Amino acid sequence: MESRPLRYFVAVAEELNFTRAAERLGISPPPLSRAIRRLEAELGITLLERTTHSVALTPAGTVLLSEARTALDALEAAGRRARRAAAPEPKLVLAVKADGDAGLLEALCARYAQEPAAVPVTVRLCGWQEQPRLLRLGEADAALVYEPFDRTGLDTEMLTTEPRVAALAASHPLAARDRLTLADLGLRPGDLHQYLHEIRSQGRDLAQLLTLVGLGRVVPLLPASVAMRYPRPGVVYRPVPDAPPAALAIAWPQQSRSTATAALVRAAASVAQAAGEDGTVRSLQEREAG
Description:
Arc Repressor Mutant, subunit A; D-Maltodextrin-Binding Protein, domain 2; about 20% strand; about 290 residues; single chain; globular
């Protein structure tokens, strides 16, 4: 199966209109329609239900749309990685959410520079949960990312876990307590993923989120390292012992054969282990427990 018919099919499946899809692709509708019919004949299935007034995906078409997007993204990612590998001065792109590295980033870069296979590192700062997409698109070679995230097409290694804290306005009624529970926040353990998603959608970065906290608009659950590294007037942090811990992983594309990326993963694991052994992670836990 060639990529061009798949691109044509994705355009029609997303637009559900041959005229709009043809305009998007820069071709005329008749050859587009013929290409889709050839694709259906090649596969031996019907992908689209057509009437004079509408176009709809069949169940088989719905499946192919998802698979085709993944395949086309993988092709584009392969091209990006190949072009970067052919650059006169190769580099490694590490995607990180600002303030989402558990305090390990500087030590990681320093440790990686000692690796024989190391190449210059470009740190790409990104938004919430943007790292997996950048990896799949070939725009990053590795990423530091907090659980949970979409692992499709990725390999991962867990680096560290740390307790979560609630960030509250100093004037919030719960701020008077030494510690909180999920129930105090109106949450159950199974609600946490959706809750974190909703909170993250309200602030593009930590500064915005903490501004909303100070205004009493939101009460996010954050990794304890954020509380230690970013004290802020008008905001207090309270431990939530029954919240699932924040788990930080390093992720990279499954198909990667890069020795530089493998060296970065080794360096990350080494730095995380050392941080735990020298008490960095333990001190976070003890601070929140105490």
